[in-house]
Amino acid sequence: MYRLILKMAYKNMFLRVHRTLLVITMIAVSMSMMLGIQGLYDGMAENMIEKNKRSGSGDIALFAKEYRVQKELKYRVKNASSIKEEIENIKGVEAAVLRLKAEGLLSTARKSSFAFMQGMDLEGENRFGRFEEFLKEGEMRLEKGDAIIGLELAKTLKLQIGSKVVFSTQDIRGEINSIALKIRGIVQTTNIELDNSAIFVDIGEMHRFLGTNEEEATQIAIICKDEKLIEKLVIKYPELEIKSFLELKPTMKMMQDVMLIFNSITFFIVMSVVFVGIFGVMYVSVLDRIREFGIMISVGMRYKYIRVQIFFEALFVGIIGYLSGAVLGAIILLYIKNHGVDLSSFSDALEMWGYEAVIHGTIKISYFTTTFAAIIAASFFSILIPLRKIKKLNPIEVIKADK
Amino acid sequence: MFKLALKNTLFYKGRSITTAILTFVSTMLFILFISMQDGSHNSMLENSLKIYTGAIEIYAKGYRDIGGNDYLIEDAKAITDKLSKIDAIEAYSARYETYGLLSNKEYSAASMVAGVEPSKERVLSSLESALREGKFLDEDSKNCIYMGAELASKLKLRIGGEVAFVGGASEGSFAADIFRVCGTFKTGSFEFDSSASFLARSYFDELMYAKNKASYITIKLKNLSDADAVNSQIVKILDDEKLESLTWKTLMKSMVEAMEVDNIFGYISLSLFLVVIFFVIMIYGFINISSRIKEFGVLRSIGLSKRNIFLLLFYEIFILSTLALIVVTPLSAYICYYYSINPIVIEGIADMYKDYGIVSDEIPFDFNPFTIVWNIVVIYILNFISILYPYIYINSFKPIEAIRHV
After folding, report:
1. Residue B286 touches chain A, beta carbons under 8 Å
2. A38 touches chain B (CB under 8 A)
3. In a shared domain, residues B191 and B285
4. Shared-domain flag, residues B34 and B139
5. Chain B: nearest CA to A92, how far in angstroms?
6. Coil vs helix vs strand at B211
């Protein structure tokens, strides 16, 4: 019996082929657009978060208490090297680096700008966050007198590879001290703070410049897989301030939340409208065949079989629409993921806001599973009112009635 | 034909109600979305222009690209004399900017130090109204420095505190002096508040050997929308190839671009809703028409042309769209107007996004009748396009076929 019902449902689906195709097209187009937009927006946010982690604090960062508020060299971690070694030996820790940071004035012969110098170990940074991948121009080299600079700061000061700059700041004794540097590389990390204001030098050279010793640092950054590591570190190092990435970058957390809310609202609105579309077609389809259902009931077909038949009709339309939308959406997502959306003509603005000029999307299985569930639900709910109509049917009257 | 269309819309209630509701929803969404987007962009722009940047600024060519003392304006007065002849200009002032290190006993920080004309800045910028502590500058302030609150906090300075300045003078020599903090300001722009400080030009010019020199001349207009026209006038009146006059569109290129990008993403999101709604309107129109094939067959048989059929469908969608728009337009316009006067406030948003140049917690809407009109035109066009496929479908039947259609 069910085989026959399935066959009837399939054939009825194509009874009004234009109508069915329109609904399928609507589902496919709206679903693929929605997937594309979700993938693009999630990709933007994830890309930014991932690069901010790699270039900045990692998953967890440790500071001396007061440093984040005062940002002064005197609030540095005194035994940073040994703490780093201890942390590296903890299970789940992938990499840890030390950084030394000082704010000051960066000057060329013609221009000056506020900047901060970040001392780092280039090899360690490459292991930590593949820092070399941020290179936009020049080379990744930090020997004596070399510096790498953030893209926006380079633009502000009109710097090129080989340009000479002088960085002036207060050293550990409170004296104004200056260092001459040659630009070896320009990086774009998509971390606004670094791109706009950072000049990177070797941490050893910075220790000599500021008068700090090699054991010390202003930040210890950690990349790890263990989500509970932060709790262990807080207990182990009570004298330090220990923060997770999202605590340090609440904007990123907000961005994630906003994306989630936006995608959920979009999903809800689109699926509601899709539901209205399927409902309209199913309702009219039932009304068109009301005599047919009357005859079926008169000849003894039970209501539950008619219900199953109509459900399958809606389901077929939904599934074909879904499959078309999934294929189209997957093509769009793959394109956005591999080739990206090129917004180079707005590169100034995007770079200023920490985005890359070519925005790459992301693909998540959940896009397809949640949409599938929603379309099946929309198909199911769209037939409830038409079924009510059939249930209340008086077969004799319907058969007698003119079409 | 219009009468027939009107009767049809009343007869096919289901389709009419659905189309009208969907048109209502899509129009409301469209108008409010664009209004909010434009409103927040205008607000960002106005805030930035209000703080410090001028609607138009005049530079010596090369100052912005290369910079340095070689590209200063050497005779600022000659230019300002010419500017005073332009009616559309509300105020102007020559500013001298340099970067230097400010230090007190323990702390140092880099700062942009600018020599300004205090009386003119009162009109030109929001520096005075951003006063947080102490007092704003006047022409005789001497070595008084008016400092961003974040910068003062970084240097642990209070009103009356002294700070040493080291920088480069306009002819290349070192310039050093001790300033006294007379006032601090907070504009809301984190970057500006943490890096800018000001002195009266009368004093600063002596220190920097910058008498009658300027980094640039900033101009405030009576009407911001006249920027392009006034700029052309300025270029003409200056008639000097060594100078360039730039409007805010160039001066704030990154922000203008950022708004364009934001618009693009906004339109992409909006297009999704409009496309889905367009499809549903088309589907309902199609369902309606496919149930009226016989009727169209009869109409064609009694002499109605294809054009008449098109007109009939056009009038039907026109009536439904217009009915929805008559209700939704004043409602949406009122909401836009209301929120343009009473902006939505999201506490903490400016602090959260301070790195992105957001200086206010307010999200105002933009009430612009022209924008609302073009929004409505787009909705009309979409609704009209939605009848094309049903029209093509109905015309695929010959009148006899249509009459016999089951």
Report:
1. yes
2. no
3. no
4. no
5. 32
6. coil
Residue at token pair 């104004």: A176
Q: Does B175 share its domain with B281?
A: no
Task: Please state, rounded to an integer, the average pLDDT across all residues of chain A.
Answer: 87
B362, B234: one domain: no
A:244-303 residues touching chain B, CB 8 A cutoff:
250-251, 254, 262, 266, 269-270, 273-274, 276-277, 280-281, 284, 288
Domain hosting B238: range is: 56-250
User: Is B305 an interface residue toward A (CB < 8 Å)?
Assistant: no
Examine the pLDDT at A403 and tell me if it is beyond 60: no
- Percent of chain B scored above 90 by pLDDT? 39
What does the alpha-carbon distance between residue A332 and residue B83 come to, in Å, rounded to a whole number? 54
pLDDT value for B303: 83
Domain termination site, one of B197, B230, B250: B250
pLDDT single digits (tens) B10-32: 888 877 887 888 889 888 888 99
| pLDDT tens for each residue of B260-305 | 877 888 888 888 888 888 888 888 888 888 878 888 888 888 888 8
Question: Are residue B34 and residue B72 in the same domain, yes or no?
Answer: no
pLDDT in tens, A305-361: 888 888 888 888 889 999 999 999 999 999 999 998 888 877 777 776 667 778 889
B210 and B343 assigned to the same domain: no
Same domain, B390 and B259: yes
Residue range A73-127, pLDDT digits in tens: 888 999 999 999 999 999 889 999 999 999 898 998 888 888 999 999 999 999 9
Using an 8 Å Cβ cutoff, are A306 and A331 in contact? no
Chain A residues with CB-CB distance to B282 below 8 A: 22
Q: Would you call A165 an interface residue with chain B, using a CB distance cutoff of 8 Å?
A: no
| Beta-bridge partner residues of A178 | A168
Where among B235, B250, B265 does a domain terminate? B250
How many contacts does A have with B, using Cβ atoms within 8 A? 153
Q: What type of residue is B338?
A: Y
The first and second tokens of residue B24, run together, are 């209502």
Question: Does A175 contact B at CB distance below 8 Å?
Answer: no
* A74 in contact with B, Cβ within 8 Å: no
Q: Which residue of B has its CA nearest to A248?
A: B352
A350 lies within 8 A of chain B by CB: yes
Radius of gyration of chain B (CA): 31
Q: How many domains does chain B have?
A: 2
Mark whether B281 and B387 lie in a shared domain: yes
Question: Residues of A358-387 as b/e, b for ≥16 C-beta within 10 angstroms?
Answer: ebbbbbeeebbebbbebbeebbeebbeebb
Q: How far apart are CA B319 and CA B314, in angstroms?
A: 9
| A22 has a chain B CB within 8 A of its CB | yes
Buried b (16+ CB within 10 A) or exposed e, B198-229: bbbbbbbbebbebeebbbbbbbbbeebebbee
The number of CA neighbours under 13 Å toward the Cβ of B173 is 7
Q: Please give the residue of chain A at the shortest CA–CA distance from B351.
A: A251
Interface test mutation site (partner B, options A68, A72, A273, max chain B beta carbons within 10 A)? A273
Which of B195, B190, B357 has its CA nearest to residue A106?
B195
Of the partner residues A34, A250, A352, the one whose CB lies closest to the CB of residue B258: A352
Written as one string, the DSSP assignment of B219-282 is EEESSGGGHHHHHHHHHHHH--TTEEEEEHHHHTHHHHHHHHHHHHHHHHHHHHHHHHHHHHHH
Cross-chain Cβ contact A269/B273 below 8 Å: yes
The pair of three-digit structure tokens given for residue A367, joined into one six-digit string:
């896009």
| Nearest by Cα to B280 from A290, A35, A41, A378 | A378
Query: Would you give the end-to-end CA distance of chain B in angstroms?
Result: 25
Angle between helices A250-288 and B13-51 (to 10 degrees): 160
